[in-house]
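Feature request, filed as a ticket because there's no other form

It would be nice if the structure record came with a short human-readable summary line next to the tokens. Right now we just get the raw output. Example of a typical job, pasted below so the devs can see what we mean:
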Amino acid sequence: MKPALRTDGLGVRYHRSWALRDCSLSVPAGRVAALVGPNGAGKTTLMQAVAGLLKPTCGSVTAHGEVAFVAQDRPLTERFTVAEMLAFGRRVNARFDDRAARDRLGRLGVPLDRKVGVLSDGQRAQVTIALALARRPDLLVLDEPLANLDPLARHDVMRSIMVEVAEREVTVLLSSHVVADIEETCDWLIMLNDGQVQVSGDIEELLAHHYILTGADGPAGATAAGAEVVSASHAGTSALLVRGEPAPDPRGRTRRAGLADLVMGYLRSFEAAALSGPGPVFRR
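Raw output as currently delivered:
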């Protein structure tokens, strides 16, 4: 099966600065992929390149099928009613499914006769996602879809996205700064750091290869115990994120890494080896 998204050596340069460099990744069809990284890592640039909104400086990006992109600022015309926004969507998209959009918003309790400008942030997010899904995309790209939403709205938006994924097998690429938002919904992880892919792979497989060692005698001891140190934290008790199963060490405790451990550990250590491909492949 072809991947839903693939980039090879993708690079995007703005004037003298590279927003993306040698960015290569692959996302299988039907996955919900989380795009994670610090501010300025290149997440929005990557999404815009995937959506065809900017031309790469070098390399290539291939998305199979229709792509729908929702920007973080949720661009809607505030003086339009929701029904008028749907009418606009019909005019500019040949394969726009108006009935599906209306049914979706009706189930979510979003009134079609209300002006966009008076909707809550959660309702506005649901309208933008409904407009994107009405295009019947194969790949849905969401740039911080949960930004500025309260916890209940965040839950409702993510739940509605997951229903669509389950019913139509849509592949989703979404960016987020909040690990809790992606922990229960995403099954693929992409981490960008300084414009480069640092981690890319199936979340369960990645977690199966990583452990947290607490109270161990420093990075050298963990390496000698059969595991490679990704990062170390010394706030109070020493804690190491390691790749590979370490040998038993009576001086400390070992547990499987959680998603938050994995994300924070790699963010702390940009020089850590990247992971790539459809499964976790480790390289220096």
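Something like this underneath would help us a lot:
The longest strand covers residues 17-27.
The chain is about 30% helix and 30% strand.
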